[in-house]
Design brief:
two-stranded antiparallel sheet, 12% strand
């Protein structure tokens, strides 16, 4: 009896280089801005300003005042972790208080540095890897606190980072390669 089997060979995915270049650029812009702004928000605070209440365009003769709430950014406002989360983490046996202090101190500056590198295209692969590791650490903290929606939100970020890494060979518009060409810094090319 003659028995034949057929094997299907997967067809390699054809990629349009221009579309892939645009895709990695869009992913870099989105991920870079998201990470940069998340770091900047660590320096946000609220100030309250009292102003005389206006009645028909003139200050109220009774002397009442209106309190206006404004958002401002300052180094003194820095808080790596919101106090509500920091309190919960201190009760977690898997997180050391010493490491939590270091993490809280460096999270904002790291998010800003990594966000800028991804946005500008400086050592894009390494920067995306660092971003993925930061988001993985944040996800671990949320797993400990059983915050399902935050875990899912960060999981979406991880999928985008993985996609950006897969498309990294199409990353033509990056500052790292431009600097490598101009200044002869070949070690910076395609990192």
């Amino acid at each position: 009896m003659n028995q034949s089997t057929t094997h299907t060979v997967p067809v390699p995915l054809k990629t349009d280089p221009l579309a892939a270049t645009c895709a990695i650029l869009m992913l870099r812009i989105w991920l870079g801005l998201r990470c940069l702004q998340a770091g900047i928000e660590k320096y946000a605070g609220t100030v309250y300003i009292s102003e005389p209440t206006q009645v028909n365009g003139v200050p109220d003769p009774n002397g009442t005042e209106t309190v206006i709430e404004l958002k401002e950014y300052a180094l003194l406002n820095y808080s790596g972790l919101p106090s509500s989360l920091a309190d919960k983490f201190q009760n977690e046996p898997f997180i050391s208080e010493f490491l939590l202090g270091i993490y809280s101190q460096w999270l904002g500056p790291l998010l800003i540095a990594v966000g800028l590198c991804v946005l500008l295209g400086l050592a894009t692969r390494i920067s995306l890897l660092a971003m993925g590791l930061i988001y993985t650490s944040l996800t671990y903290g949320l797993i400990l606190l059983n915050q399902a929606s935050g875990i899912a939100w960060l999981g979406t970020h991880m999928v985008l980072i993985a996609l950006a890494l897969l498309l990294a060979s199409y990353n033509r518009l990056e500052l790292g390669n431009l600097l490598a060409d101009r200044a002869g810094l070949n070690w910076l090319r395609n990192k």
